[in-house]
Queue: 4 jobs
Job 1
Amino acid sequence: MNGGAVAEFDRFRRRVLAAGAVALAVCAAGAAGNPDQFFRSYLFAYLFWIGIALGCFAIVMLHHLVGGSWGVVIRRLLESGAGTLPVMAVLTLPLLAGLPRLYVWARPEAVAGDELLRHKAPYLNVPFFLGRLAFYFAVWIALAYWLNKWSDEQDRTLRPEVKTRLQWLSGPGLVLYGLTVTFASVDLVMSLEPHWFSTIYGILFMTGEALATIAFVIVALWLLADRKPMSDVLRPTHFHDLGNLMLAFLMLWAYVSFSQFLIIWSGNLPEEIPWYLRRLSGGWGWMAAALLVFHFVVPFVLLLSRYNKQRLRILAAIAGGVLLVRLVDLFWIVMPAFHSGGLAVHWMDVLMPVGIGGLWLAAFTWQLKRRPLLPAEGGY
Amino acid sequence: MESTRLYGLMAEFDNPADLLAAARAAYAEGYRKMDAYSPMPVHGLAEALGVQKNPLPLIVLLGGLVGCLTAFGMLWAIETIIYPLNVGGRPFNSWPAFIPITFETTILFAALAAVLGMLALNGLPQPYHPVFNAPRFALATHNRFFLCIEASDPKFDLVATRRFLENLPSREVVEVAP
């Protein structure tokens, strides 16, 4: 990358890093007065950003397997996103300090008084939880490391066998991704309400993460579109493909979310239905209705139009909206576990995504500026 | 007029690039009532022929909406008015249970609208079409590319149009009987 662009990237990186650090510092000061809230907001914001990192990681493997020019133009963005996973591993550490505050199964006195939790204790206990988290991150970081390393090698040598090697890694890699993200979503989020369970939970997270990732790369592409070499290769067909992918993930999210709801609603069983009763009453119910409208109906209708998908500015505006509703969806999934009384938004819930996002974006930009914005193999 | 007894003039080309260039040249020349025939899709050919936005997407959307409303309306009417059944104490208007059928019917109607709309807009089925009167036209499914300027085009003139087509890198230009 040329000097001017590097300087610009460095400036952006310093700014987001400063914004993130300030936001996190303010939240840390707030933690003294309300530690419970700190960890809840932290978990929510952490899930949003690790979702984009994992989505980048998954979609780059998907692209190695299926190919297509849509993926070539965003491949560096995806690889840079996957390259932030070690930073996300470090950002997991504060979470570990708050395990008993977040998870009822991490409080021995609560487990002792709850027969179901006693039976779940062989799985839901702190040492095993930490071991699993370490395992997930080991898998993710190792796979992302090899994906990035071999992609660099492909850029340098342009040897076709490197491409084959990337494909051989990506197939099993996607299987490992599916398994680890399923277990991670159960461990980190579903176990907030350990009496409840849903077998579609992993897919729900994967779909939401992929949706957020596509929205994120569309916005990033929009910011980079006027810059060489992007301005030379980007065509409306790329935006059309990315818009269609966003539409596909949006519909998949709606499909999976509704499947979970329909089955639990139809069954109406006392161990399953409280999860929805909590999330459909009072302010949470209004939030659910807003999700139906703004996380599905509005973007769905907008993305049906080819006109909207072939214009990067319009597409980026829709993608920005999708990122926002992804945050709301995660909030609606995570927070009612703590606020069963009704909808409550704390200032840390707003500031924390900025804080973690600042650090994440700084790591992302640092990864991005190391290499040319387009892979050398071509095929745009 | 000579041209009233003709369907049009057809030029034969060896490769898709020549056909595409010919279609662009004919459009630039002012011809509008024309069509191109090729054994495989040629990228950009529809735009070169000046094909405007087609109404198929709108037909598919309407088909989907009709399917959506039909299914949901039918289920709602049956379950709440015509034959209300108490299923496990759930409300008669159990809308979540209607969604899968509504979803499937939306897709079914949209798909049918796409297929039938495509056939209707293409004027299919069509048992007779004049272009098959051109002796070598069967090669359009094999390895030749054809551009036919129809006699109904206001700019069509048997002599001038023939000269125009012959000046393109065409193999031959034939008159097509109606």
Note: Residues 9 and 314 of chain A are 24 Å apart (CA to CA).
Job 2
Amino acid sequence: MKVVRFDPAPVFAGFGVLTPAGVGVAGLLARRGETRPGPGRGSEPRRPIETGIAVDLPALCGQTPLRFRRMDRFGVLGHAAAHLALAGMPASSRPAPPAADPSRSGAAADPSWGVMIGSRLACVGSIARHARDLADQPLADLSPSVFVRTVANAVNGDISIGWGLGGPSETFVTGWTAGAEAVLAAAAALQEGRARWILAGAVEAPDHARGVAGSGRPRETAGQEAAEQEPDSILVEGAAIAVMGRGSGAQASGPLRLRACLRGHDPQQRFSLTAALDAIGPMPLGTVIVANTIRTDLLRRIEEEAGGRPVLHLPRLVGELGAAGAAVAAALAQEMPEGVLVIARDPAGGTAVLALSR
Amino acid sequence: MRPEPSIPDSSIPRAPAIDPDAARGAHGSDTVRRRVVVTGMGALTAAGEGVLPFWRACIEGRSMLAPIEGFDAREFGPLRAGEFKGPARGRGERASGFALLAAAEALASAGLERSALPPASGAVLGTCLGDAIAPASPPVAGGLAAPALSLAAAYKLSGPVSTVSVACASGTAAIASAAACIGRGEADLMLVGGTDALSRFVVSGFWLLRALSPTLVRPFDQRRDGLALGEGAGLLVLEERDRALRRRAPILAEIAGSGTAGDACHMTGPSPYGDGVLRAMTAALADARRAPDDIGFISAHGTGTRFNDRMETVAIKRLLGPRAPLVPIDSIKPIIGHTLGAAGALEAIACVKILQEGIIPPTINLTAPDPECDLDYVPGEARRQQVRCALSTSSAFAGHNAALVLEGS
């Protein structure tokens, strides 16, 4: 894996985080030291799995449910996370509201703001719904609005339309590393001067993906199916979107920076923390956050190579957040005084490392 | 779909000022970036397996659209589509199989064997649905990423392996993403492109949106009434230029710049003034350190829908100004259909062939020009014309736009 360094390093100016542990990262941090979620195995006690986000999202965004009537859960979660991320910014730095474009032609969209989103499941819930409707109903009775939600970039569209963001836009569906990839792409776009601010992160909505093969989601027989899986690999809802920025305005509003990234395809699990740190170079590393479920032997190797530094395994706090894991981990890094290394891994072999520090 | 607004010329917003000197500053950044070249190409389309049959169909203006045979499509009325009807070789599901076949051709044309790939080789594929839709089984969660993972497994790639899914702009966005990856030093070689397969699922969606033509696909024609779908894959081998020169690789073209932008106005309808695609084209030119006057050819998204073709025309006029009528523009979608995630990659391959051979494929079925689409769309027959710098654009649902600048070697 080749390292990409960012100089000047883009900053994180705000985060919008939604997980089963609540809004923001306080609920996650409070769970450190608690028992792991999942069905019990042997004598190890486990907390019940919470797979959904029990928050009234329209109310959280100050909207009525009608506002979201055409969105699926993937879209609502993305919109809500973007709302939270922007709410944390000074009003003077936020994008102009879409009311500034009464013709809805996009002419007033702000090209200095971009959107980069990652997801493993993305739109497959709406794909499943349209496929089911197609099988069960006469063609003429189907709604085109469901088909419109079957594109993975629908969340990018929701966000860019909602806030009038006309800058660079990308959607990655690479797997559990897609969130880290979105953050990397945003950092690169900021460094190249393609935008001044980018909303970057990831959204996973397994609840709307019921009936989708391989979604990692306990279905109707939750207890039995969950017991047959590695507990931490049960995908839970999550969304984390950061406001990433460059320039003097950004420097004033957010202390955490993305220093470097590593990416590669590693199905043989040859990943080495030592090699990753060597590639990144000197950094004030405090904590290593493993954002996704990984094999126990690889986790042990990372803990050994961490040399006594704390290794936080995010799925043990909340379950598997999929692509949202890396973005949630970046939000946790915001709360930590020293540098943080985030490791995202997909079962298919995708690996991404984010080096973050102040 | 929204009602069609009338756009008098006087109401079109003023074109943004594009300062060539500012554009040459590449977004104002002083980042040093490695140059990225195309060294191999592979295609699989309704014209058959290979770049050659695809290119021949393009320059001969021979439509490959035909009634759908892969599934019972009678419920959709009279439709034609660009189905791949070659032997069903390749592993895995169809989109992955298409990508594997096109990748094999691309690597062979680049003079590369599997064992000769550099360690930092990766892949970026663009797709709308990948292999998420499998006949007679529920949708597959990891299906969107399946084609890229198939390439990674087949060629033991250890560099970045990524899937970009921005609907119909996926192929163009994937090339942009892979070129950026090589440019910033993450990889030395990338297999990149797009793939998508035709299915009842896809046809039903576009039928519900009333976007399919029951007659002929006629981009920029006054009688245009919709698009025809297609399927296939387009794959390119991108390499860091110095590495390609060292190994004496065939350098077919250079990916000089790229840009993406959101419309920020509607989920299915483009901005009537083409603001989003204009921003993407402007960003691609700035990235390439080129001015609008440098563009010698534009590969349009050119779907044949009323909204898209007029919007693109407006955007191109705003980009090129008085020079707009002088720059040839084409759409190859009436020839192979709209191949969704593969479209941008196949159009990039066509651009490379245009740069190499100096022949511009025609926009077929354009016999009654729309007064609002009054540029040079190369109607009827292919045209011999040398082109040094080409611009390729794609637009998509959710207001996504992507553009590439390609230059001759």
Note: Chain B has one domain: 35-408.
Job 3
Amino acid sequence: MDQQNTTEIETRIQALLAGDVSPKERDELLARIATDELARKTLAEMIRCRNAARRAFGYNGADAAINPPVEDILLATEGRASGRPGRRTLRPVVKIRWASLFWPAAAAAAIAVAIYFGLRGQDESSAIRDQIAKVNQAVAQWQMTAKELAGYQKVWDEIAASSERRSPWILLRDGGGRFEYLPATGTGPQAEPMIVRCLLVSQDGTVAETVNLLLPAHRPLDLSLGETGQLAGLPLRCKVAAEDEWITMDVMIGRDEAEAVGVRGRVMPGREMSEIGQFKLGDRGMKVLLQAVPLSSSLG
Amino acid sequence: MTVLEGKQIEKWYPRLFRTALRLTGSTDDASDLTQQAFCKAIQSRHTFAGRGLPTTWLHRILINCVRDHLRRKTTRRTQSFDEWDMVPVDKSEGSAERMEKDEKMKALRTAIEELSQPVRIAFVVTVIDGYSYREAAEILDVPVGTVASRVNLARRELCQTMRNAFPEA
């Protein structure tokens, strides 16, 4: 492939990856990718380069919004080829002409999808293993003691006693804390509390920041806790959500949401502490550990 | 077409900020430049002809602000990109493998930072920020072929740098 051809195919592939192509151009390009080995190699190299460059600059899943995911682009013709609605293009399928009209797109899509999943295979499997490991791996040295849990129960009882029907959430930090009452959910008694603890621990084991949050257990909620501490002179913000028995925590560092970077992870209450991610500050790694413990069951 | 209402600024700010951050390496500079770009865009919103996307138009304004800033700036930046890195935990690998991967990412980042300014801007806008060469040409105000050759050059230089740094890989 000479330089002019290289430039031409790279330009077309980048347009495909950026979603800046018409359906016709996409079909033509996918058909070419299906039959032209050099085009396939170029696509593979461009995706590899893009993924590596984005990883090098710390882009995470949230940044997928910057352009259409590759999966969507490459699968766009699949629906028409198989007679099912495509992800992005809906067009009635004329069965008689199916074979003559759509086979190049179908073949191209199949090959492009294979390239895509081949490239992503390693990442996908690592990500799945990582997700499972997040829940199961324990960081034993940061277990809460019964004495601590009793202290949290006392704090909860005092604050919860002020309202018969509404459960509070309480953020404890530096010997103080702030709390708010959640809307009442019914006429029943208040929910049992649980403690959600998030630690930021440096590689040498020093706890740089701690977030201790008391929440009603077994209740769906979505809370923005605002600023919960500081790390490297930057505000630390947390969001917590409870749904389907899972507690999900977003930990973000930055002056405001637009420029913040963060990690997200979830734990099942009652399990041991899990590492949900890591911040890299200069040469230092900062682990983010999360645990949720129902107070009553642990004390009983 | 109305551009730059409050919600739209909110929507586009992160993407522009990220571009500015990749190009300047400083959160303070990126924040200033993004705000500067929005101010300029608001002042000259009547010049947006409605052709193309507002994000492309905004990126063009931002890139001009960044170019002016880089021209003015004579010293090397003092704040490392590292401060803003988020490294997801990969428990499937041992710490040695993780360190090796971190090393490679750091080398790649340094190699991108060391590309010449026009090549780096073309690479960031297309490969990292996800614009097509046609859109990038509009943003950078150069022909499509120029964008293509700059990005191709960037890719080849980065591959070479990585091969030199990690010949076993």
Note: Chain A touches chain B through 51 residues (CB under 8 Å).
Job 4
Amino acid sequence: MESLPSLDELKPKPYMNPYFAGIGLGLVLLASFVIMGRGLGASGAFSSAAAWLVQQIAPKHAASNNFYAEYLGDGSVHPLKDWLVFEVIGLFIGGFLSAKLAHRVKGGIEKGPRFGNRQRLLFAFLGGGLMGIGAKLARGCTSGQALTGGAVLNLGSWAFMMSVFAGGYALAYFLRRQWI
Amino acid sequence: MNAPFYKYGLFNDEVSLIVAVLIGIGFGFFLERAGFGSARKLAAQFYFTDMTVLKVMFTAVVTAMIGLYYLSVFGVVDLSLVYLTPTFLLPQVVGGLLLGFGFVIGGYCPGTSCVAAATGKYDGWVYLLGMFLGILVFGELFPLVEKFYYMTPMRTVTLPQVLGLPYGLIVFLVSVMAVGAFAAAEWGERKMAAKKAEEKS
């Protein structure tokens, strides 16, 4: 029995103090600026993957589309051999490591108690889709625009960040059943 | 010392991809530490019950902003070599609104959904699938929205340039604003907790 970890050890640990987590995140972002001359990102990696997929299925179609073409480049480098693609691979690893160390890796669906599982998954899908479209229109998501552009005082990023909060708060009332 | 290191050719593209993975690990680590693998915690931001999103985000922005500013003042980092996305105001504001809608509907943003997926959340995976298809829809419709996509171009432009104020002053003002936002967030959380306790009793 002694070799088994006690229940207490397996319990998920509490989250980090938000200000300390923010400082940690800010230092990672700063390191990216200093080492690479660029910030963090997320949606861009999926754009590269999407462009690559379209190229595999319909190469001519992909080449004639300016959006895909931007992510495919001139063909000298594989579209997936991209900085953001590798950064997002790290993002998955880092998220998993942190959760594993704190006993927070657990299957499940995140939602409020009054909301059904199938409904929640449908909303996750629709919200994701909307985000995909919005992030491309805005030339980046919360990582690439709000966080990164925010720190370098980019005008478009600050306008974007305020719009994200405005959009979220505007719709929050109608979605309260999902969360609270 | 000359930074950004990559721009000064201190290492090649292959090495930059290793750096990418390492920076990504740090990124994912702190997102998860903050609790951003949980859609409920993220969405709570929009109901004023848990303002962690605002606190983490603004602390991170201010930390990196102040760090970068002082490194440039001391001549370590050449700010002009740090990449800025060009501003296209209207599509970015509309895109931001769509992202805000998507955030409260889907419960994640692209980065946090990766953390949710990596830690086993099914809604995180479904969100990622939705986002991927959303990007494909955008790509397919791009010829139709291309005109709007390039509307209101303002090139690369920063707040100090628009407002005609010194960079350091904006850094200071944003920091003060952040501290004010933190105080308001703490006050709001206490208020909401008190309200909840009252409802229970």
Note: The radius of gyration of chain A is 20 Å.
